[in-house]
Amino acid sequence: MTHADISDVLLFREQISEAVKRMAHQIEEDYPKELPLMVGILKGSFIFMADLVRQMQRPFEMDFLRLSSYGSGVDSSGKVRLRMGVTRPVRDRDVLLVEDIVDTGLTTSYAVGYLQRKRAGSVKLCALLDKPSHRQTQVAPDYVGFTIPDKFVVGYGLDFDEQYRHLPDIHVLKKGQL
Ligand code: XMP
Ligand code: MG
């Protein structure tokens, strides 16, 4: 690997793929009547969402939300901004939020609140990664791929300064960058 800022692989693509399949099957079981409207939180979730939705055996709708809280560094600014809202109707519908990683929980709490204000029938959360060590809110994902230690990770959609989203595995950012 020639990228200077990143070190070991934390999660290999094969492990990620297994976790994505497991989550997809669980979601299908939990919504026997109709699959929920799946709402990906951009940008980080785009690769996870793409893999997750291709495991689904039944039709459903999807949409995206764009939120931002991080500046260019690795610590949350603590302020979440809505940059782009959903376009599909949400009222009285089951919604499943799809997120790359839950860290402080501020981003997901904001997204849940946003959907509740739009009177969603139910809101559940599917997160590929759960990093519970800095949690500042009550949020707990309903579906989790992996619970990870307090390390800044990149790849599979996750960025550092908008770099490394394209990497197929999930890597830890080198300490010198933090
Ligand atoms: P909060 O703290 O609001 O964070 O739960 C959620 C958002 O923060 C970003 N985030 C990370 N991005 N590697 C990343 O590339 C990480 O280790 C990391 N931790 C948090 C991410 O954008 C997520 O949507
Ligand atoms: Mg990010």
Task: Write a concise keyword list for the protein shown above.
Rossmann fold; binds magnesium ion; six-stranded mixed β-sheet; three-stranded antiparallel β-sheet; 178 residues; binds xanthosine-5'-monophosphate; alpha/beta; 9 strands
Question: Explain this structure to me?
Answer:
With 178 residues, this protein is of the alpha/beta class. It has a single domain, classed as Rossmann fold. The protein has three helices and nine strands; from the N terminus they run E-H-E-H-E-E-E-H-E-E-E-E. The strands form two sheets. The protein has a six-stranded mixed beta sheet, with helices on both faces. Strand 5 (94-102), helix 3 and strand 6 form a beta-alpha-beta unit. Helix 1 crosses helix 2. The chain is globular and about 45 Å long. Xanthosine-5'-monophosphate binds next to strand 3, strand 5, helix 3 and strand 8.
Low-pLDDT sequence parts? none
Structural class: alpha/beta
Which range best describes the helical content: under 10%, 10-25%, 25-40%, 40-55%, 55-70% or over 70%? 10-25%
Can you list the ligands bound to this structure? Answer: xanthosine-5'-monophosphate, magnesium ion
The CATH architecture designation is 3-Layer(aba) Sandwich
Tally of DSSP β-strands: 9
Task: Tell me the fraction of residues in β-strands, as a range.
Answer: 25-35%
- Overall spatial form: globular
Write the element-wise H/E pattern from the N-terminal end onward: EHEHEEEHEEEE
Major β-sheet strand ordering:
4-3-2-5-6-7
CATH topology: Rossmann fold
Mean pLDDT: 92
**Main sheet attributes: strand count, strand direction, barrel closure:** 6 strands, mixed
Question: How far is it from the N-terminal to the C-terminal residue, by CA?
Answer: 20 Å
The level 1 CATH classification is: Alpha Beta
Radius of gyration: 16 Å
Count of the separate structural domains: 1
SS field, number of helical segments: 3
